[in-house]
Amino acid sequence: MKIELRRLTKTWGETTAVAGVDLDIDDGEFVAFLGPSGCGKTTTLMMIAGIYQPTSGEILFDGEVVNDLAPRDRGVGMVFQSYALYPHMTVAENISYSLKLRGVDKVTRRRRAQEIADLMGIGHLLDRKPAELSGGQQQRVAVGRALVKEPRVLLFDEPLSNLDARLRLTMRSEIKRMQTELGITSIYVTHDQVEATTMADRIAVMRGGRLEAYADPDELYRRPQTLFVAGFVGNPPMNIVDAQVVGLNGGFVAQTLGIEIPLPDDRSRPVVGRRSVKMGIRPEHILVGSGPFAGEVVLVEPLGREDLVDIDVGSGTLRALADRSLGIRPRDRVSFEINSAEVQFFDPETERSLLWG
Amino acid sequence: MIGTAGIGRRRISRGPRIGYAILGVSVVPILVGYAWLLIASFSRRTRGLIPTTIDGRAGGWTLDNWSFVSDGSVYRATLNSTLMALGMVVGVGIVSTLGGYAISRIRFPGRKGVLSMTLLLNAFRADMLLIAIFFVLRALGATPLVGRFIGFDTVGGVALVMVSLELPLGLWLMKGFFDNVSWDMERAALIDGASRFRAWWEIVLPQVMPGLAALSVFTFISGWNAYLIPFTYTVGTGVSNLPVFLDELIGETSPTNWNQVAAVGLFQLIPILGFYLLMQEKLLNIYSGGTKGGT
Q1: At B90, is the secondary structure helix, strand, or coil?
Q2: What percent of chain B has pLDDT over 70?
Q3: Could you tell me the domains of chain B?
Q4: Percentage of chain B surpassing pLDDT 90?
């Protein structure tokens, strides 16, 4: 099912939770709403579910305005952060409650609950109560409950944030696999950019109730349109430094933190003539080991495959990813190279990208 | 918490032991009181806890004090007590669960006002309102059809008055329990296809059952033991309840036969004791506040 949001707005008294969001979601697409807490992503989801009534703007399902439809008439399935299972019902009753409300007979309900539970790998737990299940099992019940009514759209509200890290990885790929197989249009709210980039076809980055960017993960990573997106997408986060771009020996260099970084043509051209800009350099684009720049290591954080190192270059620090085999320790002096073909530039006032804005 | 079931199997350490000792000592006077009640109801006279005959010698056991059980009027009073108490349980239960839910969940104009007004009303003693309520009851009694059941000098009227006096407690209590039920659970029910009422009935209400059970017990007990309101708004034994019956016993027999009073008092206590024994776990819930096994 295709979903369209038109100037969707929600205010609570004086505060604006969602401010004029325009968004199209294609049939079968998996879209993540990404942003820090309080950015309006959950409020938007609740409006799509029909729990909140929009203050203004429209929500369209397959071209039809559904603003005034009750949640039960929208054909949505939802998975909550708290799972929100019904504690007094068994797993089977939890899963098949929506069928009971539709008047489906008991035998069919049980059979459907069994099918869905088997699909979710909890077929043996049908007669347990939610309190007798682990977090991961409860989560599967919650997903099963959303799936059983064959919804036109699946809504996920930070469904994995209460799980431990390992289980989160498993559930992440399971939800993704299931969504791909069933082809149900899905919206996934998260504040975890790794979850968003690994699962979603497209990511809607929200900030302060506004849609900051809406693109596929690769696009957000390589061509961030705003400083906020650049800082939010990508792990570890991008280095953001003040810089000046000046001509030198027929080319251009970015002067920052007391060093001069030569720039390729396509990066420097839109920036020329600006006295000061914000420059973004991803840690993975700083190549530690050899190169024209040098600094002292002040902090090493082993990430497993790589080390995240903070390098003091004299008038500031840069974070870089370094190969573990280098055996870098704090207080070491290291040389490094910057892959300037990947640097980003932003207007310090508008915070919009000077390259892709 | 000290002394919960969770640590029951472990050897009791010194801290709880001191606690139990203090508790034990402090309940002794109450236990002695009940012991006296029991002994006195089966004897002619007592000196301390020792039953005596009229002339002061030990002994003097008798069943005479319980002779009222063969008199029909005590059963009439028992029936009235039961009807009043159960009527209160039903009335307070229905209004408190519906009203408590509304106050907990729905933002309506005057919500804060209702909340603080109920609290304020609870601060007034019922005695102050006796005369005003009398006129209200008389007016209610004059209404066609239902007037016969809820007016002055009816069991229904007395129950109605006591329901309204019990409601502030009930509303606040149930509001607290509803506050503890997650919004998401209710939203899930709405998305699953339930109407707002059905979500309340099938999903939310089961979560507050411990609260409702505790409220019911408290309401039943306060209805069962009520004296002032039934005494004020009933005339004659036809509609009086047990406490009023007990009072008449004291007033009419001269000099008062305290041993008979003890017997009737004990008779009145029996259902309450039974209730407490059956429901004590639910009653504790009201203090620990909230549902078990919820998410």
Answers
A1: helix
A2: 89
A3: 7-62 (no CATH), 75-289 (1.10.3720.10)
A4: 24
Task: Encode pLDDT of B107-127 as tens digits.
Answer: 888 888 888 888 887 777 777
- Chain A interface includes B184 (CB < 8 A): yes
Q: List, in order, residues 6 or more apart from A248 with CB less than 8 Å away.
A: A260, A262
- Say if residue A117's pLDDT is above 90: yes
Task: Tell me which residues of chain B, numbers 203 to 222, contact chain A at a CB-CB cutoff of 8 Å.
Answer: 203, 206-207
pLDDT band for A197, please (50, 70, 90 cuts).
very high
What is the structure's pLDDT at B262? 87
Residue A95 with chain B: CB contacts under 8 Å: none
- DSSP character at residue B12: P
What are A86's two structure tokens?
């019904």
User: Could you give the CA distance from residue B214 to residue B284 in angstroms, rounded to a whole number?
Assistant: 8
Q: Distance between alpha carbon A177 and the CA centroid of its chain, in Å?
A: 18
pLDDT in tens, B191-247: 999 999 999 999 999 999 888 988 888 898 889 888 888 888 888 767 788 888 888
The minimum CA-CA distance between B207 and chain A, rounded to whole Å, is 7
Residues of B in contact with A78 (CB under 8 A): 187-188, 191
Q: How far apart are CA A83 and CA B295, in angstroms?
A: 8
Q: B191, A102: Cβ pair inside 8 Å?
A: no
The mean pLDDT of chain A is 91
Closest of B68, B95, B118 to residue B242, by C-alpha = B68
User: Measured between CB atoms, does A81 come within 8 Å of chain B?
Assistant: yes
Q: How far is B186 from chain A (nearest CA, A)?
A: 8
Helix (H), strand (E), coil (C) string for A23-92: EEECCCCEEEEECCCCCCHHHHHHHHHCCCCCCEEEEEECCEECCCCCHHHCCEEEECCCCCCCCCCCHH
The string of DSSP letters for A131-177 reads GGS-HHHHHHHHHHHHHTT--SEEEEESTTTTS-HHHHHHHHHHHHH
**Residue B183: closest CA among chain A residues belongs to which residue?**
A84
- A87 touching B, CB under 8 A? yes
